[in-house]
Amino acid sequence: MHLFQNTGRRGEDNNSLSMVTSISTCMCYVQSASNQWLIKVPSNIPALQGSCVVIPCVYTYPKTKKILNRWVGFWKRGEMIVSTNLPKIKLTQEFRKRTKLMGNLRSGNCTMRISSVRTTDVGPFYLRIEIPQHKMHTERNFVFTHNVSLIKCHSTETPEPPTMSLDVLDKVKATCTVSHTCPTSPPRFYWSRSGKQKMRSKRLNDFLWTTESTLMFVPLPSDFNQPLNCTVVYSGKKSAQSSMILFRLALPCMLTSFQRTFRLKEPS
Predict the structure, then answer these.
(1) Coil vs helix vs strand at 172
(2) Closest to 72 (Cα-Cα) out of 45, 111, 105
(3) What's the whole-model pTM score?
(4) What is the number of alpha carbons within 13 Å of residue 86 lying toward its C-beta?
(5) Structure confidence at residue 46 (pLDDT)
(6) What is the pLDDT of residues 80-127, one digit of tens each?
(7) Backbone φ, ψ for residue 107 (5° rounding)
(8) Which domains are seen in the chain, by residue range?
């Protein structure tokens, strides 16, 4: 009989506490009088301080017979430009090299990425899209502005320990899973034992992804009564760890799991 025990702990490379910033936007559908203008952004996006977050954003605009060849987009905070698709515009030091308007505005994608998330990455933010050749009934160039509010950081917790599971037959199949909001830089997984590894990511909703690593190995006598550790390192080097202990018991064909979570205390 095999028995395994599950433990989990949080941490990072310098043993200090990390910060979780919650980026919140109301699910918005904003339309013009013609019912052809539409923008969609998600709500309550959790972001790990020091890591990255991708804010998905899509929009549509009225069809026109005019030839359109220029789309200009700005994510702004007040009068400060946070991100833009104009390479000649210099961002302030606060956002320089940390933000990117990833989406193709021509295809209606206004997605933005923020790297090295800080507690100061709060809003409200504004999305501004300009289509100079698109004339409305007033024959004015179209400028579309939509407000996206990002609330302040509400938590100082470290990353949640990954979820682990074990399937034991002739071989051990260990699975380690985490959720995150930065699909462009998914977390990295490190196992305390060698074996055949596979990793895959799956989209759960507009902004949330899961990434899991699977480890396969034939158990040796030395594998029993020892922790099997899975360490997850996020973009920005914040880390979290879970463990499972495999026991060999006298009765065959019986599996029992125990779970225990360790949390690092904030230094006094």
Answers:
(1) strand
(2) 105
(3) 0.76
(4) 15
(5) 80
(6) 999 999 988 999 999 999 999 998 998 889 999 999 988 888 767 778
(7) -95, 10
(8) 2-17+159-262 (2.60.40.10), 20-148 (2.60.40.10)
